[in-house]
Design brief:
heterodimer; A: 284 residues; Rossmann fold; 2 domains; 6-stranded mixed β-sheet; 41% helix; B: 233 residues; mainly alpha; 0% strand
Chain lengths: 284, 233
């Protein structure tokens, strides 16, 4: 579990994070959502210690990051895995060398054991037969998987993902989301994901933190988010007309106005357009 | 940045591997350009010295002495290091800049690795090992280039050149050249690492950092050259 207590951070005159408090739960995928510039990445970089906080505390299972010495931080960081937005794979190394790197640096295992572990994690992220390829030779989705494999190879307690779906097609995004979610449960990790992808929010948002201009505006899960009453959050999640329509449909389902089993053609034939305009009686 | 370099390595074997890798990259990567430059600068030096020594009372051996001393004192350490500032400096600044921009440095930090000691220190130490060796090679090749140009161009026979090389030789000049080589190697690597490691932005800034690193290194080399010549000669 990671506790964030009243964290604030400024760059020169601009305050990016304004007293954020939240709890990132173990065994769950914790999502930080918000528009670009809302402070998601800054909060995540503060959590992993890449940025120093100006005020507040970040506590990893009782250990306060803000009061740690450099040596204690180094130890903690060996329990952290991170997937970067651009994957951050080492260009000069093959896939195998990239994933093996943390093992080379922090374990005294023999080569055979290291290779076995590398093959295990590559198999887990469904990347077989890519060991000898360089990052420039694989696709964006494969790079993300290699990034995940490298992040989990030392079996970390905490996994951080910065916009894992950026630059990926919707189908690959779903595969990556599912993979992160499954790995989180399998290894009982505390996973923190920065995203503004609403598919991810709905699929794996077990604990969601919504940031608005550096302030925690809303907190909940993917079941609660769709019916939330927060105006700013609704402006963010229903920015797409499609999602607004989907919400209307879902509300009508909840109220029993339309039947779950009826298909879209049937609903539209029966006056779906009126339904979306609020004329619910005609549908019924 | 220099202070952060001196910490206990997480895994000494990995640091050693990186030092060897950088030594090969910097040393072998610059070998051909140093070879070409050295031979030609020695050859040009011989031809131009012969052109200026028109008096019949001056011995032909003097040409060899002039070639030897200019190559050892100035051409090999200074000219070669200015070229290396371009070759090695831009490579180091570009590599670190790319690692910074693509978050590879952040990825190493997250793993708990001191990036200053893992990425910067091996580059500086590799430069301190390989650049003086390249300068020594440049001295030998420069003199050989002068000998070659002298005999092939009919300026002076090889035997006369060899005789001239041994006349009035001052061993201190070689030590002076090596002091310069170590100083310049440190300037090239540390300045380039500084600009590359601290890049902020994108591809444009990586290019700017490389250019700034090369220009700053060249200016500092020329300045240090004057200071060393003033105090050590």
């Amino acid at each position: 579990m990671i506790e964030i207590k009243n964290v604030s951070k400024s760059f020169e005159d601009k305050q990016i994070l304004k007293g954020i408090s939240a709890v990132m739960e173990t065994g769950k995928t914790n999502l930080i959502i918000g528009t670009s510039g809302s402070g998601k990445t800054v909060l995540q970089k503060c959590m992993v210690g890449l940025f120093e906080v100006d005020g507040g505390e970040i506590i990893f299972d009782g250990k306060n990051l803000t009061h740690m010495t450099q040596e204690e931080r180094k130890e903690l960081r060996q329990q952290i895995g991170m997937l970067f937005q651009g994957s951050a794979l080492f260009d000069s190394m093959t896939v195998e060398q990239n994933v093996k790197f943390p093992l080379d640096m922090f374990t005294k295992w023999d080569l055979q054991k290291k290779i076995e572990r590398v093959n295990d994690v590559l198999e887990r992220v469904e990347l077989k037969d890519t060991n000898k390829k360089y990052p420039s030779e694989i696709s964006g989705g494969m790079k993300k998987r290699v990034g995940i494999a490298r992040a989990i190879v030392l079996k970390p307690k905490y996994l951080f993902c910065d916009e894992p779906n950026s630059g990926l097609d919707p189908q690959t995004s779903m595969v990556i989301d599912k993979l992160i979610h499954e790995i989180t449960i399998e290894n009982n990790m505390t996973t923190v994901i920065n995203t503004h992808d609403m598919n991810s929010v709905m699929e794996i948002g077990e604990n969601i933190l919504y940031l608005y201009h550096g302030i925690k505006e809303w907190e909940g899960n993917n079941k609660e988010i769709i019916f939330n009453k927060n105006k700013k959050l609704n402006e963010f999640i229903f920015a797409s007309e499609f999602l607004r329509d989907a919400k209307d449909m879902r509300m009508l389902e909840e109220k029993g106005i339309i039947d779950n089993d009826r298909n879209m053609d049937e609903i539209m034939r029966d006056g779906g357009a009126n339904l979306l305009m609020g004329d619910e009686d005609k549908v019924k | 940045m220099m202070k952060g370099m001196f910490t206990k390595p997480e895994n000494f074997k990995m640091y050693w591997k990186e030092l060897m890798h950088q030594s090969v990259e910097i040393g072998m990567g610059s070998l051909w350009i140093v070879t070409v430059i050295s031979i030609f600068m020695g050859a040009v030096s011989a031809v131009q010295t012969a052109y200026q020594l028109v008096s019949p009372v001056i011995q032909k051996e003097t040409i060899a002495q002039v070639v030897r001393d200019t190559v050892i004192l100035e051409f090999a350490p200074t000219l070669v290091c200015i070229v290396l500032a371009g070759v090695v400096g831009s490579k180091i600044a570009g590599e670190l800049g790319n690692m910074r921009v693509s978050e590879q440095i952040d990825a190493l930090e997250i793993m708990g690795i001191n990036t200053k000691s893992y990425l910067v220190a091996p580059k500086i130490f590799a430069s301190l090992i390989t650049i003086p060796l390249l300068v020594i090679l440049a001295m030998a090749l420069g003199i050989y280039g002068g000998r070659l140009a002298g005999s092939m161009g009919g300026i002076l026979p090889a035997e006369t050149f060899d005789r001239g090389l041994l006349m009035n030789f001052v061993p201190k000049n070689v030590w002076f050249a090596l002091v310069k080589a170590y100083t310049f190697a440190f300037i090239i690597s540390s300045v380039s690492c500084f600009y590359g490691y601290n890049v902020k932005g994108g591809a444009l800034e990586i290019g700017r950092a490389s250019t700034t690193a090369v220009i700053t290194s060249c200016v500092l080399i020329l300045f240090a050259d004057y200071i060393l010549a003033f105090f050590l000669l």
